[in-house]
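#random but structural
TW: two for the price of one
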Amino acid sequence: NNSLLKKRVQSLRFLDSSFIMRRKPGIGAIHKQKLEQEKYKDKGTEIQENQFEQMTKQMEIFRTNLEDFATKHKTEIKKNGQFRRQFTEMCASIGVDPLASGKGFWSVLGIGDFYYELAVQIVEVCMATNYKNGGLITLDELRERLVQARGKRKEHQDITNEDLLAAAKKLRIFGN
């Protein structure tokens, strides 16, 4: 009985020690892990492409809606300086620059043209007053002179200081 008990204890120790010693991962396990990583990477790329496609569609829909809004409110944008400022601020906050593009619906609306025309008129006023002030003029005086030159009829747009600054920025393409 005693010898049988010793044999059982020895066999239990052997089994116990064999469970403690684990085998290191082999080449097959490494290949399996690599395949799993590639699957995750492929799935991540697929998800990223789907998200990009959805975002592109949403931006196209948004651009169309913005065009519709601008077309619908064209006269208000052109006539009302405060509304025009709010519209351009909204566009700028979402990364759309209505003044940067000379083509597309911005030019159809005449929004870009308004600032280019205003820039030319700013240069004309500065050149006309050059003999008095060296071409330097305050925004308020410039605005007053432009309103006088353009007339106060209803078909002329209101001019704000923000409009003058935006138009003056258009002149940067000519240098300092």
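TW: number two ↓
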Amino acid sequence: MPIIASLWWWELRQRWLVVLGLIASTLIVISTASSTPVFTAAAAAVGIAFFPLRYQMRLVRWSVVGGLTLLHLIMKAPVWHLIARVSAVGGSTGYHRYLLIENFIHRFDEWWFMGVRSTAHWGWGQEDVTNHIILQGVTGGLVSLVLFVLLIAEAFKNAGATWRAVRDAPREVWLAWGLGAVVFAHLMAFLGVSYFGQGNVILALHLALVGSLFQSKCKAPSFAASSPASRSGMPHIRDVERGIMEPYVSFT
């Protein structure tokens, strides 16, 4: 949804397609009748809504961390127990997800080295690992978990560096910010589902889009200026990029 919304500034004559895409995406989320897609869509909307505060995101991040830390200190239950209390639809399995996080923390000695064969012995229904972050730990151990967290952190960092690099081009700023909002939406989805099959492909695609845009906007100029291609009269990388992007952004 954030990527669709960011295309609003790319082709003025085709904005009706953006509206149609957002309506279709919203209907798909509603049709799932599930809390995770609803909260994921809400996270995407929040990510887009924070665009006016893009220069204050460091303050926003630390405010969120401070708020969660304060809640953890004053609540009787751990702060991740909030997952069990929040539900967008009836019949939510938030308590199962809370127990999964609880067991993941308290059974650190079981999975930290190389993961664990099964989590079924953690409790009733715990064989269903409905948390993509926890899945990295139970299938690959602590190293796998840390690398995955670093990958997501790098995606956020690259998205931030990209919109700063193109701050004078509103369309590209919105595209970079939209990709960052997509990663944030994935982060929310991680708390309620573990990806498999095409879900992993979509995640990899979005991370690749962030990295590709970062590479073209933040790394390409210096590379192109020093490359033999630029000195031999071959097309500049920006010209090649423009030729690739124009069909995409014009919805043709």
